[in-house]
Design goal:
465 residues; alpha+beta; Uridine Diphospho-n-acetylenolpyruvylglucosamine Reductase, domain 2; Uridine Diphospho-n-acetylenolpyruvylglucosamine Reductase, domain 3; Alpha-Beta Plaits; 7-stranded antiparallel β-sheet; 15 helices; 18 strands; globular; binds flavin-adenine dinucleotide
């Protein structure tokens, strides 16, 4: 279907990139053959490291001429197989396009290249008393380009929204090699179709993002985290809607179920705070100063206590807050220590129905006799359902996993949910997209793809075939 990268194509690629920015030896492909999805490797035939949009444009024109596939790759932390070169071909790694171009304090905006690590961006703007809210738990490792491609969210989505709410401009190279510049340092812009909106969340299938302009906010003057243990999962989740109903919008409301608490306890090998709880909530409050934030403590505690909370820990220094978040941030590593193969799902349901959904997940776990840990963003209804292979045989796992996933997705859809809140469909969820998206919608998406990429060379094998 696609042409292999042969010596003729390699020669043409070496006319675009210097030799130190081309990897063509198979033994060096390992790092570019996987993302954070367990157990799947797809090997590229060549990897290139562009430094400019013009280089990418030339590569895309070459790919259209010779018909080889091209897969964009940020930092490879994806959880849907989006950066896997499933048909081989060329991987474009953005790791060398990692410069912050300009911090514009007059417009409260920042212009940067896609390879900048999200956590570095946050530290940089915070040093200038500014704030970039989207905070995927992988922020120390993922890239801002990957965040745009997946429309990454994070705990703070409940108050501040997701990546799409902060992008005001971007440059991208189209699959056919045109360099396009959208938006700018503009607060509003309705000139033509909203192509920025289309590119964000397109999972690297419609264009290669090469430059980004983000809007920033003033940094909150005070931030405080509360850790609250509950005797039942249902109690913990009922607090979430109750807090919102009282018109309090914390910057995050995260939850951990019993399996997640146990996994973290085992991972760090020493007692953890409130380890006997059936569920914990981490509630973060932020505001202009300590007084404006503290006024909500009591209201929140009253709601929590009414719903079965039996204690509370408050962290408002940098050190205490880091300690409080430690468990939440390393949950995936904790689960992987228990079972090297973990299937990570990220369904999203109306936040008022999380408890009902997780009850269904527990029933599915017991039906298939499989260990499932649930944690996630209770404030925005995004539940990370983690299915552990543990000691199951490969045959049983391969046979049952698709059935388990299908049941989980159907349970979410039945109560108004969707199969992905932030990780995307990518390679690993494309067989399930028709559960929640109609054929008419898929056909429309395919026609959009066709308009952008008539030769189907950019990131093929993702979202839908
Ligand atoms: C421990 C852990 C915690 C996580 N927590 C969260 C979370 O809280 N919220 C969340 O949303 N996600 C989370 N993720 C998932 C992941 O970190 C995000 O999807 C992130 O946005 C991926 O960024 P990346 O740079 O690693 O992209 P990659 O994995 O390299 O690529 C992801 C997709 O983006 C495309 N892409 C990358 N760069 C570009 C570009 N410049 N132009 C066009 N397409 C591009 C790729 O082709 C691919 O389809 C987590 C992952 C891990 C391992």
């Amino acid at each position: 279907m696609y042409r292999k990268i042969d010596s003729e194509i390699l020669q043409k690629i070496s006319e675009i990139f210097p030799s130190e920015r081309i990897v063509s030896e198979r033994e060096r492909f390992e790092d570019y053959s996987h993302d954070e999805v367990s157990g799947i490797n797809c090997y590229p035939e060549v990897v290139v490291f562009p430094e400019t949009s013009e280089e990418i444009s030339k590569l895309m024109k070459l790919a259209n001429k010779y018909l080889f596939p091209v897969t964009p790759r940020g930092a490879g932390t994806g959880l849907s197989g989006g950066a896997l070169p499933v048909y081989g071909g060329c991987v474009i790694s953005f790791e060398r396009m990692n410069k912050i171009i300009e911090l514009d304090e007059e417009n409260l905006m920042i212009e940067l290249e896609p390879g900048v690590i999200t956590g570095e961006l946050q530290k940089y703007v915070e040093a200038h008393d500014l704030f970039y809210p989207p905070d995927p738990a992988s922020l120390d490792n993922c890239s801002i380009g990957g965040n745009l491609a997946e429309c990454a969210g994070g705990p703070r989505a409940v108050k501040y929204g997701t990546t799409k709410d902060y992008v005001v401009g971007l440059e991208f190279v189209s699959p056919t090699g045109e360099i396009c510049s959208l938006g700018g340092k503009l607060v509003k812009d309705v000139t033509g179709y909203n192509l920025i909106g289309l590119l964000i969340g397109s999972e690297g299938t419609l264009g290669l993002i090469t430059r980004i302009i983000l809007r920033l906010l003033p940094k909150p003057g005070f931030v405080s985290d509360l850790l609250v243990p509950f005797k039942t999962f249902k109690d913990a989740i009922s607090v979430v809607s109750e807090i919102i109903r009282h018109k309090i919008i914390p910057s995050t409301i995260e939850f951990l179920d019993r399996e997640s608490i146990l996994a973290y306890r085992e991972y760090i090998g020493k007692p953890v705070q409130f380890e006997d709880a059936s569920a914990q909530l981490i509630i973060q409050l932020d505001g202009v100063n300590k007084e404006s934030t503290e006024e909500y403590y009591e209201k929140i505690w009253n709601i929590c206590e009414k719903h079965g909370a039996y204690d509370i820990a408050v962290a408002d220094t940098q050190q205490d807050r880091a300690r409080l978040w430690e468990g939440r941030r390393c949950l995936l590593d904790s689960l992987k220590a228990l079972s090297p193969i973990v299937d990570v799902e990220d369904v999203v349901v109306p936040r008022s129905r999380i408890s009902e959904f997780v009850e269904e997940v527990y029933k599915i776990a017991s039906e298939f006799n499989v260990r499932i840990a649930n944690f996630g963003h209770a404030g925005d209804g995004n539940v990370h359902v983690n299915i552990l292979k543990a000691a199951k045989s490969t045959e049983e796992w391969d046979e049952n996993l698709p059935l388990i996933k299908k049941k989980i997705f159907k349970a979410a859809i039945a109560i108004g949910g969707e199969i992905s809140g932030e990780h995307g469909i990518g390679y690993v969820k494309k067989d399930y997209i028709l559960l929640s998206t109609s054929e008419a919608e898929i056909k429309l998406m395919m026609r959009i793809k066709q308009a952008f990429d008539p030769n189907k060379i950019l990131n093929p094998g993702k979202i839908f075939e």
